[in-house]
Amino acid sequence: MIRAATLLAALLIALPAWAFDTPAKSAIVFDVGTDQTLMEKNADMALPPASMSKLMTLNMVFEALDDGRLSLDETVPVSSHSATYGGSTMFLETKDRPTVEELIRGVIVLSGNDASSVLGERLSPDGSEAGFARLMTARAQELGMTNSTFANSNGWPAAGHRMSMRDLAILGKRLVTKFPQYYGYFAETEFQYEDSPIANRFNRNPLLKLNIGADGLKTGHTQEAGYGLVGSAIQNGRRIIFVFSGLDTEAQRANEAERITNWAFNQFVERQLFEKGVPLTKAEVWMGEAANVNMATTTDVKALIPVLGRDGVKAKITYQGPLEAPIEAGQKVADLIVTVPGFADVTHPLVATETVPAGGFVVRVRTAATVLFRQLTGRLQTQAATLF
Asked: What are the start-end ranges of the H helices in the chain?
């Protein structure tokens, strides 16, 4: 049977409506610390992502750096294919031998289509950018980015090159949390490769100069996609990631990015609900040396609450019980579901805080007697399972 225990009844505060409307065609705002989506609009619509798709190329590069397939000081040849890219570029020529680190900065700061292609060809299974795009698509699916398909490394307009704003938010969170050693590149405002022309040396992210905690991630623009941005900012230890696309002008993109950032930080307060490792409740154990086991979260559990409402936060535990021994300390045994009105529920794993070995002969006799008693009194609920 499924057991539920209500753990927290509410943090009550009074506020008006906190909903946010955006002129963007598609958008999502996500709070990293609480896993809460603060706002979404057509977030699962697959759209042309323009240069925002370069974040997937960077993810592939950072993974390769971590497992030793690349090094920051490795020099990489520039193919004639990569050198022919137009739009935003690093001004690479086939005679150049940039390092991986220079190419990373070229992708992030300069939005270099050529730099992205060079990195893609370096990591491609067959040495081609098309082969790398297939690899990107497969890796995106593994990471849960189910509305992403890639035709190239850089977002150059192509049939079938699509991403959703939710997928870009998943990717943004991954870059922030999994690769902190490389994340500093995203806050760089200027980069010039050797003696290349100075026309394209400034980061296009409009938030970096506003002193509002912004430190990434990537802009995008094509005629088909409009103006978009994957942004990230941190204030007082809280980090948000937001993505939008489909605006009409560069100025509109800058204004909307600042408006979203201010709203996300000003309209919510963060509350810690549960502390990592502190037992929340006990679960009944079947056939174990102990009759119960404590359950706790693996991380501090926090929630964002609108600062102007009287809505309550609720939390409940669900598990399939009784739990059957043996149970190992750290084993997942239940789910903690946190509900904030107006948001999707957020589920956190609960683990056993101690080991409960299987019981011996006496425990088995006692358990059999308990089963018989429950059958006679109607307190035992029969559970069915299909074996074949």
From this structure: 54-66, 80-83, 100-108, 113-123, 129-142, 165-178, 180-183, 250-266, 361-377
